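Throughout our pipeline, every protein is held as a single compact record rather than as scattered files. Such a record has a labelled line for the sequence and another for the backbone structure tokens. The remainder of this section carries one protein's record, kept here as part of the documentation:
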Amino acid sequence: MGRAGLGVLGCCLALAMLPLPAAPRGPALRPRRQPRPGGPSADTACKNRPLDLVFIVDSSRSVRPEEFEKVKIFLSEMIDTLDVGERTTRVAVMNYASTVKVEFPLRTYFDKASMKEAVSRIEPLSAGTMTGLAIQTAMDEVFTEEMGTRPAASNIPKVVIVVTDGRPQDQVQDVAASARTAGIEIYAVGVDRADMQSLRIMASEPLDEHVFYVETYGVIEKLTSRFRETFCAVNVCALGTHGCQQLCVSDGPSHLCDCYEGYTLNPDKRTCSAVDMCAPGRHECDQICVSNNRSYVCDCYEGYTLNPDKKSCSAMDMCAPGRHDCAQVCLSNDGTYSCGCYEGYTLNPDKKTCSAADVCAPGRHDCEQVCVRDDLSYTCDCHQGYTLNPDRKTCSRAITSSLVTTEESCKCEAIVALQDSVTSRLEALSTKLEEVSEKLQAYQERQQIV
């Protein structure tokens, strides 16, 4: 049973019972307070929230017959304080010593008279104190739907009250822990020779609200009034008749309905509907909100990583080793990246790999005449008759050297003499041709006269 089930129980019992003593025996239970004017009388049952309540009572040899009768009176008076019924509080009683006996389960009786009659017939079992076995039997044979426990969806608290005067003779720690994990709230009431450490081991937390001690069975029935104060509802929320689907909030004599986190109250002011935790203004995510049941988690866009605050995002270095698939150069760009190539290479159509470029292709070099490819680079050259300028790019026409050898000089002079001889002969021949031409012309004129 959680805080929502019997939130008042621990508080009231802590005030009503004795404070936890340092030794197994402590001061007697304080005198019961006088009922307030107009409060419930000893034979008047008050309305309490529905429970599945199991009493586990010790009837080992250390409990004398007259003391066990006191225990039965305590159980009967407790039944009188409860709002017993099929739809309200169901009660089961278990009796244990070396063995365990389920006197009646939760499904058997739904009226007080029948329950009290069954309690009056309980007989002690005598030997042994197998408290762990008793709690295990409660889990296996009593807190089942077949035996009358209501389904978990009904949100009916499951409560065990163990009454013992001895030390368990079996391992109770693990069994009690399993029961608490299963949602069973355990109250341990020690009497007389009860081992306080064992009570603390089996009870639910906080221990000062779940472990109690009385000196004798003679005063155990006085606990009835304390349980009455605990179970009696003082507001509509405690009565369980408020009609709220999820949470009931007391408001003086009235009440208000509320919802769990992730739900919103419907216009009828009673029922609840799940809300979109990722709706604008409802979350603190920097980039992406992901709904998660009645809560949410934050995420980031591709190229970003979630910061330790689990809300904001930071851009990742997409060009870090192992984060990209570029063959040569990775260029980071605000959470994403693009690929590039080294000088002399060009990016292939896949936008990832590179191929060597033709550096001498038109427009790719600045040579004036000839481009000579050199691996991934180039050098400039010139056509024949030209020479490369100091800028290693442009060309100028070559200048003939004025220095010639003797052999070359002789060759030149011979050529010049030959040229002069040919010229003279051509000039003489030309003169003779002119003379012949003149004689021929004179002869033709004489022939015309004759």
Q: What stands out?
A: The CA atoms of residues 116 and 283 lie 56 Å apart. Residues 1-45 have pLDDT under 50 and may be disordered. The chain has nine helices and 22 strands. The longest strand covers residues 184-191.
